[in-house]
């Protein structure tokens, strides 16, 4: 902010899948669910 460096939380995740087997929309939904679990790890236990 304002030209200052700061600490941020970022992580890049990629998914490679065979489109003959997995639809791209299914892969995108998986990555979205994965991101939600990383943000709130306790949700994996419920």
Q: Could you characterize the architecture of this molecule?
A:
The chain has a domain at 15-41. 35% of the residues lie in helices and 0% in strands. The chain is built from one helix and no strands. It has one helix at 24-39. The longest helix has 16 residues, at 24-39. The chain is flat and about 45 Å long. The protein starts with 23 loop residues before the first helix and ends in a 7-residue tail after the last helix.
Structural class: mainly alpha
How many helical stretches? 1
H/E topology pattern: H
Give unreliable regions as ranges: none
Q: Helix proportion of residues, in percent?
A: 25-40%
Let me know the average pLDDT: 88
Strand content: under 5%
Quote the distance from N terminus to C terminus. 37 Å
Rg computed from alpha carbons, rounded to a whole number of angstroms: 15 Å
- Multimer state: single chain
Q: What spatial form do the alpha-carbon principal axes imply? A: flat
Biggest beta sheet attributes: none
Count all strands and give the number: 0
SSE layout:
Blueprint (H helix, E strand, L loop, with lengths): L23 H16 L7
Compact description:
With 46 residues, the chain is an all-alpha fold. The chain has one helix spanning 24-39. The mean pLDDT is 88.
Observed structural traits:
46 residues; mainly alpha; 1 helix; flat
């Amino acid at each position: 902010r304002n030209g200052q460096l700061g600490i941020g939380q970022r992580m890049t995740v990629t998914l490679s899948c065979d489109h003959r087997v997995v639809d791209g929309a299914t892969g995108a939904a998986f990555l979205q669910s994965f991101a939600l679990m990383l943000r709130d790890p306790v949700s994996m236990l419920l």
